[in-house]
User: Fold this.
Amino acid sequence: DIQMTQSPSSLSASVGDRVTITCRASQGISNYLAWFQQKPGKAPKSLIYAASSLQSGVPSKFSGSGSGTDFTLTISSLQPEDFATYYCQQYNSYPPTFGQGTRLEIK
Amino acid sequence: EVQLVESGGGLVQPGGSLRLSCAASGFTFSSYWMSWVRQAPGKGLEWVANIKQDGSEKYYVDSVKGRFTISRDNAKNSLYLQMNSLRAEDTAVYYCAREIEAAAGTSDYWGQGTLVTVSS
Assistant:
């Protein structure tokens, strides 16, 4: 199975900040990489697929990049509703696997 | 509006069985791969299984192979997960999810989840 490793595991930031989360795959996955946001007690929400394509309705403050093994999710101008846990997921090969998550907290 | 509503979760003893259901609405169910993803309490996300539009292809994570069966009824706009020989480590919230059109394996819409607890 392909292992996905996110860094950092947790991150403290302030409203208005710009943050970047990194996701690394244990082998090349082309651009078959998705990002999800999850708030406590809620279902995950899809943000990005194909490494950089924004899902419908997701604000442009979220952006993704990367290809191969290294990927990033950038969130600009943090707002209170952005504080959540973020997961990356590869879907290049079965089984699809998720990173361990990055908890974004308010400083 | 896409809606996915799971049901069927509950408390079951180790070795027992449970069948989860997911009622889909707001889209053409028969046109999409569908999947189940689970999340153990306080843990991360784990993809469990998915199924092709016509049910002809199914994939599972190794930890559930031979114990879980994914199925669908396109006439009823419903997805199912039959879970047998349940273990304590199967305790989780199970989410039903619609996979994206561009490629199988990742999802754009998720249900609210149903909790399965395996305990004696």
